[in-house]
Write a structure and sequence with these properties.
By secondary structure, the protein is of the alpha/beta class. The protein has helices at residues 12-23, 40-50, 67-78, 103-113, 115-131, 152-172, 201-205, 213-226, 235-246, 263-285; strands spanning 3-6, 27-32, 56-61, 85-88, 134-139, 177-184, 254-257.
């Protein structure tokens, strides 16, 4: 049984993961925004669900863009025991003409997808390092391995978080902590319906008929999800998270979920190059004899 903190747990993959882990007997702290407002119902549902399973679910106010809220949430969670696992799930998926997203919009997306993840991870790492034990699982995307038209801002934020999480993986190895990435393809969550659109209408209009690409792509994904195929079931991602938690170390740095989209081929091709680079640098940054 582990103490697990999840961000973005009011809906989608975060909510499914909280439920599954509680079913398996874990103590889950379900971080979410607006716990007394628009997410009051999801918080109440998770609390009630925990009464029916072996584990527990405790909803916590947690906005990953608010360092103070993160600190309070971590303190409340650790009052019940050390945080063994952090699941960085909160995220946004801007879709549209890449030029049409303003700098302010780019900053807002990165504030959740990259800086939010950095804030929560940095909040739990001191305790994990002191205990020489811990696991950080971060939700990336197939978009974290490719540049995709109309997903430029989303891809950029996920590429950045992949680099940060992987660098952290090597640095935390001596402390018995693992930083892992999960790379789902399209799954049936509300990321599609809640996708921010580009705000610079003049830039978007300049693309002519291509400006409709956002609606066409989102419509394609919605239609795919409406078919209810097993490969797009968001529960698959929750299961992978639970499986990684149950797995003995060393765990894989990256795990792909859903339609492969070539992600595995990219990972397999780059893994030996990355490993050789780390092996070359390891004696230097660890201060070990050559």
């Amino acid at each position: 049984m582990s103490n697990i903190l999840i961000t973005g747990a009011s809906r989608g993959i975060g909510r499914l993961t909280a439920r599954l882990l509680a079913e398996q007997g874990h103590n889950v702290f379900a971080g979410m925004r607006h716990i007394d407002g628009r997410n009051a119902a999801p918080a109440a549902e998770l609390t009630a669900y925990s009464d029916t399973v072996p584990g527990t679910i405790v909803p916590l106010t947690l906005d990953v863009t608010d360092a103070e809220q993160i600190a309070v949430a971590v303190t409340l969670a650790e009052a019940a025991g050390p945080i063994d696992v952090l699941v960085n799930n909160a995220g946004v998926m801007p879709v549209g003409v890449t030029e049409g997203f303003t700098i302010a919009q780019a900053q807002a997306a990165f504030d959740v997808n990259l800086y939010g993840l950095m804030r929560t991870t940095r909040a739990v790492l001191p305790g994990m390092r002191a205990r020489k034990s811990g696991l950080v699982i971060s939700l990336s995307s197939a978009a974290g391995r490719f540049g995709m038209p109309y997903f430029g801002l989303y891809c950029a934020s996920k590429w950045a978080m992949e680099a940060w999480c992987e660098a952290l993986h090597y640095e935390l190895e001596p402390f018995g902590i693992e930083s892992l990435l999960i790379e789902p393809s399209g799954h049936g969550t509300d990321l599609v319906s809640s996708s921010p659109a580009p705000a610079d209408s003049a830039a978007v209009t300049g693309y002519g008929d291509m400006a409709q690409g956002r609606d066409r792509l989102l419509g394609m994904f919605s239609g795919m999800f409406d078919q209810g195929e097993a490969v797009t079931d968001a529960g698959n991602v929750a299961k992978v998270i639970a499986d990684l938690i149950a797995m003995n170390a060393p765990r894989p740095i990256r795990t792909q979920v859903g339609e492969d989209m070539g992600v595995t081929a990219v990972n397999d091709a780059t893994a030996p190059i990355q490993a050789a680079l780390v092996d070359m640098l390891k004696p230097v940054y660890r201060g070990e004899p050559a």
